[in-house]
Amino acid sequence: MRERVIFTLLVVVALRVLLEAPELPAKPTASGAWQLDRTRSHVEFAVTKLPGIRVEGRFTDFQGWIRYDAERPERSAVRWSARVESVETGEPDRDDTLQGGDYFLASSYPELSFVSSRVRSRGDGSMDVDGILTIRGITKPITIVVVPSRTPQGTPAFSTRFQVDRFDFGVTGGRFSRATIGREVEVRLLAVADLTG
To answer: How does residue 32 score in pLDDT terms, banded at 50, 70 and 90?
Structure first.
């Protein structure tokens, strides 16, 4: 009888320990929220200038985060920003010019950014992401198509490609470049999740 009482008390104590113990943090999943892995993500752009020369560039200093819900994409969200001073086009003189008053005016507007406001499934695995794009202090609504995927290592990744009219954001260039550089800029983003954080 005494042994049965002791056994019952031990069971009760064990159950209380299990029920009252704090939850262990969940490991990141495909429906989690992550910072960007800046070593594998990229923010790139391309523009065409006369006579049909394609100029490509990128921003090397950027940050952001992704919240992704594969079951309910409308709960997903994204935010990223890039430092204008980190622009690289392969020509240092051109990079310096891009930071001046005819283009990004980096001294007054050191960052460009995108913040999502709504996410909708397109029914084919991709998503329409509505948001606000800010360049040179000018804010415009924009909708981009984002495609979820995975890297060869199995890490969640998200890519998009869209066009921006640089004149809409005051990035007009000097009198000569207005006529020789295309207004439409192709922007390419690859956001790879950082699963180590």
So the answer is: low
> CA separation (Å) from 144 to 36, 115, 159, 171?
18, 11, 10, 20
Burial level of 104, CB count in 10 A (0-12/13-18/19+)? buried
pTM recorded for the entire structure: 0.79
Q: What is the spatial distance between Cα 34 and Cα 147, in angstroms, rounded to a whole number?
A: 16
Nearest Cα to Cα of residue 36 among 84, 58, 71, 68? 68
If you ran DSSP here, which 8-state letter would residue 181 be given?
A: B
Half-sphere exposure (Cβ direction) of 187: Cα atoms closer than 13 Å: 21
Please say if the pLDDT value at position 180 is more than 60.
Answer: yes
Find, among 129, 134, 130, the residue nearest to 171 by Cα. Answer: 134
Percent of the chain with pLDDT over 70: 83
Which residue, among 67, 69, 65, 105, has the nearest Cα to 85 in the 3D structure?
105
